[in-house]
Structure to design on (112 residues):
C-alpha cells in the first residue's frame, strides 16, 4: 500500500469513529430526561447511586458507573431496565425502543 492510500484510509476510519461518537453523544443527551425522571431517584443523578435509597433498600447495586454494570451486555442491561430485577422495579417498561436506546446510551455515558 502506498503512503497516500494509508493516510486516506486512516482519515476515513477517524471520520467514522467521530461520527459514531457524535451519534452516541446525541443519544446520551436524549436519554438524560428519561433517566432524571425514572432512574435518578434510586441510581442518583450521577449514576453512582442515591445513598439514602441505598440505605433504605439495603442495596449495594445502585452504582451504574461500576465495573459490573459496564460488563452487562446491552441486552442484559435493557432486560433489567424493562423487566426489573431483585429490588429494582421494571422502571423502563413503557419506553419505546428508541427511548430505551437513548436511556442506555446515557447510562453508559455516566460511567465515563
Ligand atoms: C426503586 C429504585 C430503582 C429505580 C427507580 C431504578 N432502579 Fe435500577 N436498580 C435498582 C436496584 C435495587 C438494582 C439492583 C438489582 C439487583 O441487585 O438485582 C438496580 C439495578 C440496575 C441495573 C443493573 C446494574 C448491574 O450492574 O447489574 C441497571 C442497568 C439499572 N438498574 C438501570 C436503571 C435504569 C436505567 C432506571 C430508570 C429507567 C432504573 N434502573 C431505575 C433500583 C432502581
Amino acid at each position: 500500500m502506498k503512503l497516500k492510500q494509508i493516510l486516506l484510509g486512516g482519515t476515513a476510519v477517524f471520520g467514522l469513529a467521530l461520527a459514531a461518537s457524535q451519534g452516541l453523544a446525541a443519544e446520551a443527551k436524549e436519554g438524560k430526561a428519561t433517566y432524571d425522571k425514572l432512574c435518578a431517584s434510586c441510581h442518583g443523578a450521577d449514576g453512582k447511586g442515591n445513598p439514602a435509597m441505598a440505605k433504605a433498600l439495603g442495596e449495594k447495586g445502585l452504582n451504574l458507573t461500576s465495573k459490573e454494570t459496564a460488563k452487562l451486555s446491552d441486552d442484559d442491561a435493557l432486560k433489567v431496565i424493562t423487566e426489573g430485577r431483585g429490588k429494582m422495579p421494571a422502571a423502563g417498561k413503557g419506553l419505546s425502543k428508541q427511548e430505551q436506546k437513548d436511556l442506555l446510551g446515557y447510562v453508559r455515558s455516566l460511567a465515563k
Notes: The domain at 3-110 is CATH 1.10.760 (Cytochrome Bc1 Complex; Chain D, domain 2).
